[in-house]
Specification:
457 residues; Aminopeptidase; Alpha-Beta Plaits; 2 domains; 8-stranded antiparallel β-sheet; 11 helices; elongated; binds zinc ion
Length: 457
């Protein structure tokens, strides 16, 4: 182990250079072109990564630019998969440095994709490289799979599964330590209803683009006057909610709700601005489907008002989020519900219960359903990863559950493993995303240890 760690230390500068090069490619999904299903930059990112891996002496394959892989050990023998991805979400606003500059300041490297997920991909590659240099003997194949469509539709993994031999077991360093062996089920529902003919007149209420996002701001236009404006401000202070009202030029009232944005899988740290606005609309006398949504969901994210609140010991609580709402007189209501349910819950029963709670006049259809994913905590995979993490860091090691979804789901026996440490800030998809270079080195050592436990003689 000591010899291996000194090999890893010697690779540090080279690894940082490699990561710099990878970060400087803005591999955001673009228009499909011939031979580039996710756009030119994503393809370039894959080309560069595979040519770097090839230069290290690995066996590499480009799977029609949907994904690539890097193989070592006994090729074809029960591969241990490491699933990472090279595509990134758009940089977005709020950066103080060039999001694709890979700017290094002390121990930090800044850039889109440093933690999600190019840093972990580089760490896995260099863990394999260090083992290669150390000359360890393998008893099976080790395969780093580099995906190109994780942030969008996962078409990369669908293509890989169809055209390649997707391994049965492995881990995905695209979340946090120690080991996430439980991913909740996902149920994305579309909700439709007619426009209400009585009560408060809501002229427009259009918020949100994605069902898995918790909106931080929501606005609606309602008919009213100065007295209604005052009433909103009084109610907001009575109810301790952040909703304000102003009279617009055309005499309508603009309501603005300020919440805290977040991800549907982690509602505990957010506040849904749509839900908050629904509560205000109900207080102002709205009727029909908007009142029903205020009653049944409002600002709750545990499904209580929908009758679906539940939890189990392994996965924790069900969560529920309204991500999109569209409402006006000509189109009626459209809204989405993103539900993350515990492994012991049944999605058919959940939907039936929720439909009954919403009542007549509200139509619910299933947009997407993904089964929960769970790997036994006493499996060789999980115990080995827990040991590798504990031995390298000295930290307590335990299994976790998440409402999020990682590539681990693509494997029959797959878990998320790293690469964020428990105290790390949540930086994925945010402005100012950065990684700690020392932390990256610890990741390499943890991955190398894990591979030895799982794939070496
Ligand atoms: Zn990711």
């Amino acid at each position: 182990m000591q010899e291996l760690n000194s090999i890893i230390d010697q690779l540090k500068d080279e690894m940082v250079d490699t990561l710099t090069k990878w970060i400087q490619i803005p591999s955001v999904k673009g228009d499909a072109e011939d031979g580039a299903p996710f756009g030119k930059e994503v393809k370039r990112s894959l080309d560069v990564a595979l040519s770097d891996a090839k230069a290290m002496g690995f066996d590499v394959r480009n799977i029609d630019n949907y994904a690539g892989d890097v193989r070592m050990g006994v090729i074809g023998e029960d591969p241990l998969a490491i699933l990472a991805h090279l595509d990134v979400v758009p940089a977005g606003d709020g950066w103080k440095v060039d999001p694709f500059g890979a700017v290094i300041d002390g121990d930090h490297m800044y850039g889109r994709g440093t933690t999600d997920d190019k840093g972990p991909a580089v760490a896995a590659l260099y863990a394999m490289y260090a083992l290669k240099k150390a000359g360890v003997k393998f008893k099976r194949e080790v395969r780093l799979i580099l995906g190109c469509d994780e942030e969008s539709g996962w078409e990369d993994m669908a293509y890989y599964t169809e055209h390649c031999d997707m391994p049965k077991t492995g881990f995905s360093p695209d979340a946090n330590y120690p080991v996430i062996n439980t991913e909740k089920g996902m149920l994305h529902l579309d909700v439709h209803a007619d426009y209400a003919q009585d009560g408060l007149v809501v002229k427009a209420f259009n918020v949100g683009e994605r069902c898995n996002v918790i909106p931080g701001i929501a606005t609606a236009i309602v008919a009213g006057d100065a007295a209604l404006c005052e009433k909103v401000n009084r109610l907001a202070s009575d109810m301790h909610i952040q909703v304000g009202a102003v009279i617009g030029e055309d005499g309508d009232i603009l309501l603005t709700s300020n919440g805290i944005p977040g991800h549907a899988a982690y509602p505990e740290s957010a506040k849904n601005a749509i839900g908050q606005l629904l509560i205000m609309l109900r207080a102002l006398g709205v009727s029909g489907a908007l009142k029903t949504l205020a009653d049944c969901v409002g600002m709750e994210y545990d499904g209580l008002g929908l009758g679906i609140r539940c939890s189990d010991e392994t996965s924790g609580k069900l969560t529920c989020n309204i991500g999109i709402i569209r409402y006006d007189a000509s189109n009626g209501l459209y809204a989405t519900l993103d539900i993350r349910y515990p492994i012991l819950a049944n999605h058919v029963a959940l939907k039936d219960t929720l439909v009954a709670a919403l009542g007549d006049g509200i139509k619910v259809t299933v947009d997407t359903q993904k089964d929960p994913h769970h790997v036994a905590p006493n499996s060789k995979l999980v115990t080995s990863l827990l040991e590798a993490y504990h031995e390298e860091t000295g930290r307590p090691s335990e299994c976790l559950a998440t409402g999020g979804g990682t590539y681990a789901r693509c494997l029959e026996e797959g878990v998320a493993f790293g690469s964020a440490f428990p105290e790390d800030e949540e930086l994925a998809h945010q402005a100012g995303e950065y990684l700690s270079i020392d932390g990256l080195m610890v990741n390499v050592r943890i991955f190398a240890r894990a591979i030895i436990k799982l794939a070496c003689e």
